[in-house]
């Protein structure tokens, strides 16, 4: 199915008072700056022959790049071109991202490998929860894992609050062992990090690893060195969920699924079901991004 590419009226963009305040304080965004930068960004895209068709020009899509670059136009162009390069060079990762039709994606999410918690962290950010051991190395490949992550990012970026606040992560490493790492070669890890951190306009604000086995610390430090200095400073290791939620500095205990053994009343199964419904709501605009690949091949 082919979706029409429609431009939103920039003047109709409305943010809640809290979100507008965060956008101004963290990104320097005001209605006037937003309108002007959207205009300049669209004009730049239209002047580029290679982007003459297939590119979404609606404000919500373009703002993910502008907000990531804090409305600096030269930086916006850089991240946008990295994104286009990644999409066109790795269509096996970026296209046909549909949790309803891709069994590998659906199964990874349903097992709890990656999903968004229904609540927010103490700053108001969406929290991504990952149960690493849910990835059975005998059933899934590194490509399956990357596709799930990209589906998440593309879907979550459809929401302005995620563009502005960024994301927090809780990585549950219980029962993780070498079999879960075996699907990755060092070159694949490097390529995946270069793609997901360098080409996707995601603001990774806080990453918390819980119960990381000492046997995997070497892998952790290898992967850590592939990250930017800024993101490395946002990594936190915790020996338990009790320590993670101590004094509720980062997260409330009630935010986590009941399987973490804290005070939540919601099971992981219910949280995952709710998140799959949210993915359904943004399936159309995410699949519409495939038009970029069709147009630029």
TrEMBL record:
One of its GO terms (cellular component) is membrane. Transmembrane segments: none annotated. Pfam families: CRAL_TRIO. Residues 102-268 form the CRAL-TRIO domain. It comes from Lepeophtheirus salmonis. GO terms for molecular function: phosphatidylinositol bisphosphate binding. InterPro entries: CRAL-TRIO_dom (IPR001251), CRAL-TRIO_dom_sf (IPR036865), CRAL/TRIO_N_dom_sf (IPR036273). The lineage of its organism: Eukaryota, Metazoa, Ecdysozoa, Arthropoda, Crustacea. This is Retinaldehyde-binding protein 1-like protein 1.
């Amino acid at each position: 199915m082919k979706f029409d590419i429609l431009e939103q009226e920039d003047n109709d963009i409305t943010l809640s008072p809290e979100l507008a305040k965060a956008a101004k304080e963290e990104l320097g965004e005001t209605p006037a700056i937003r309108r002007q930068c959207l205009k300049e960004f669209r004009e730049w895209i239209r002047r580029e022959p290679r982007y003459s068709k297939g590119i979404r020009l609606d404000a919500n899509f373009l703002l993910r790049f502008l907000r990531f670059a804090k409305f600096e136009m030269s930086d916006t162009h850089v991240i946008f071109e990295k994104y286009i390069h990644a999409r066109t060079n790795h269509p096996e990762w970026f296209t046909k991202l549909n949790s309803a039709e891709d069994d590998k994606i659906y199964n990874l999410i349903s097992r709890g490998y990656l999903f968004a918690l229904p609540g927010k962290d103490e700053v108001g950010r969406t929290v991504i929860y990952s149960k690493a051991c849910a990835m059975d190395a005998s059933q899934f490949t590194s490509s399956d894992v990357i596709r799930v992550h990209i589906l998440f990012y593309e879907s979550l970026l459809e929401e302005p609050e995620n563009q502005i606040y960024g994301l927090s992560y809780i990585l549950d490493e219980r029962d993780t062992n070498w079999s879960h790492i075996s699907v990755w070669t060092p070159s694949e890890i490097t390529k995946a990090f270069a793609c997901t951190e360098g080409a996707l306009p995601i603001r990774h604000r806080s990453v918390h690893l819980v119960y990381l086995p000492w046997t995997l610390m070497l892998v952790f430090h290898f992967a850590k060195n592939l990250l930017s200095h800024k993101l490395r400073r946002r990594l936190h290791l915790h020996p338990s969920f009790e320590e993670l939620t101590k004094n509720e500095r980062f997260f409330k205990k009630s935010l986590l699924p009941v399987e973490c053994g804290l005070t939540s009343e919601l099971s992981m199964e219910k949280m995952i079901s709710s998140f799959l419904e949210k993915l359904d709501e943004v399936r159309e605009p995410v699949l519409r991004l495939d038009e970029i690949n069709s147009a630029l091949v």
